[in-house]
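Continuing from the previous page...

OK, I double-checked the sequence for Heavy metal-(Cd/Co/Hg/Pb/Zn)-translocating P-type ATPase against my notes and this is the correct one:
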Amino acid sequence: MGTEAPECVPERPARARRRAWVQWAPLALLTVAVLAGVALWFAGAPGAARLVWAAVTVVALVPAVWTTLRQLWRRQFGVDVIAVLALLGALLVREYLAGAVIAVMVATGQALEEYARRRATRDLRALLERAPRQARRRTADGGIEVVPLDAVRAGDRLVVGPGDVVPVDGTVEEPATLDESVVTGESRLVGRAAGEQVASGVVNAGAGFGLRARRNAAESTYAGIVRLAGEATARKAPMVRLADRYAAAFVPFTLLLAGAAWLLSGEFVRAVAVLVVATPCPLLLATPIAVVSGLSRVARRGVLVRDGGSLEQLGRARTLLLDKTGTLTAGRPRAAETVVAPGGDRDEVLRLAASVEQLSPHVLAAALVRQARERGVPLAEPTGVTEEPGRGVTGHVDGRLVRVGQLAGEPPEWADRARERAERAGLSTVWVSDEHGPLGAILLEDPVRPDARRTVRRLREAGLSRLVMVTGDRPRTAAQVAQVVGVDDVIARCSPGEKAQRVREESARAVTVMVGDGVNDAPALAEAHVGVAMGATGATASADVADAVLTVDRLDRLADAVEIARYARRIAVQSATVGMGLAVLAMLVAAAGRLPPVAGAFLQEGIDVLVILNALRALGGGLRRREVPPHTRELLDRYSGEHGGVRDVLARLRDTADLVATRPDDPGCVPALRDVHRRLVDEVLPHEAAEERQLYPALAGPLGSDEATSTMSRAHVEIARLVERIGGHLAASPDGRLRREEVTDLLAALYGLDAVLRLHLAQEEEDYFSLNPSDGEASPDR
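Thanks. Re-ran it with the corrected sequence; updated structure tokens here:
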């Protein structure tokens, strides 16, 4: 028993200082020794100076020989042999200063490479260091015990103290304030109400709270992320192995050139000079630094790549296949529209449906309950609830029998029209009925992600020339989504096996990336050169087949990852090519006798430092996206939140338009029209005016110019004009009745406003609100 905090041990400051000392100590000691030799030389003791420099050369030669012998024993052949020959040659020709400079050069390269590796993997190591190892679990007698994390099982009741890391995926039992930045990248604190689910790895930033475990530790979100992080730090990229293969050709070239210089000139010192400027090969320094830097950067953007090889492949990709549900769409249905029987009440239909569905675990039930709560519709406690799989839920609400699900019997005319409308729009239909028949229908949609179209454009700009959507959904629905996001091809009614086959076909033609939800898409992810799982919900963070996991629920982070991967690969190739070219030029000059060993050593030192520093450029740059200032983020959050209210007015507007179209003589027609006009004037127009006054000017910087919002400003003018036009018709109907000759123009205004406003909201969400990184922004590049 006890209340001590679960173990989560970051790297201690003392240990970090020791590691830093071990990293830089050889370089510091060798440098001090070389400078001491210089001081002795100028003090008139050249013999002592040479002795110090010779000792430095021997000190560097011994571990270099040991490393080379180990590599040869493992049948590995690299440029370390050149370093050994250069140090040995310097001793033989008594160029002790050159040998000492080579020793410092080798130590500098190793220290810089280790520094770059640790700097680049800092974020990946942070994941490993923060992994919880213990948890507080409630006991049967009401106490609390600290148990190893492996002992936690689904259903256990845990306690998460202030500052603790949530040990497993679970459901909070009371309100909690969390820092989710490690898992989601969200930099702000997030409040979670009782009953909401949280992922392991997030930090309790408020008071302690109870947690009901949903998964054990091995199956939880953070464990999967940690496994990927460990693999990312342990594996070696194909480009690094390619560097080793280049070394196999470079070493014989170096030895041949050194031998030719010695043979033709008869001066062994020329051969030593050639070996000196060839040590070490920049290819082996620049490539891993750039690749691992790229791994760190994509991790900070919320994309955890398994290894450097996957990152290198991502940088070479030309074809992208995307699943629809959960990838291009939100993967969670939402209520798009409520259609009611003549004379019915939309809110009452939604209230009855959501009240019955409160006890159902079905994803559609959650959408109905969420919609009712967002609109402030009070729900009643249902009784006698039963659920028949595939048909729906039945229960009593306020003593009234309510059925939610499929429609039984022959539908009335209004219901038939509603069903046809849903099929044309690619929406799902949930019917709400009582004992007398259908009361209404709730049309559900799986909305396209607001950032999907912008992401597709950025992926094309990054070099992906072919984008294909594969889905098991209906052809009509798939075609509508494909048209919205702008992909090149769409394949509907595609089973998991067919998806995998299509990925194989595309992979045979070009380097291919597959993005999916990681469950039914697992075979396709395994077939791709790079499989990317949407893992923000925790369902796929531990998918063994994925080469990369999006730990944030934003598709645009994939575009970030592709751009960073291409940039890192370009920097790696550039650094290696420039470094190798400069080294070869210096070798030729040395072979001609124009570059003595000491000067060559200093020159090669400069070349190595140059390529390492250039490779470190991969830690920043390469992203096309503009950063959004904090004030603009706040505005985007504010106006994005107001879109929910505007959509509610839109639903009323569409219902009113339908009423005017079908029953213009109905006594309730003009009152409904006056109500929706009042809401347009009181809610929608002030929202649009505030956007024009505050949001659009703030977006000029991130979008590049004031003209970027001009078309949206024109839409504001059109929206205001149509609202005024509707008001004019109302003013012309003081007796509460619509004149027949005005109905046609009124309908044009109503349906026109509905279309313009829907398009306007969609464009704002795609072009503007998707810029907001607060939906899962990892910390910017540092």
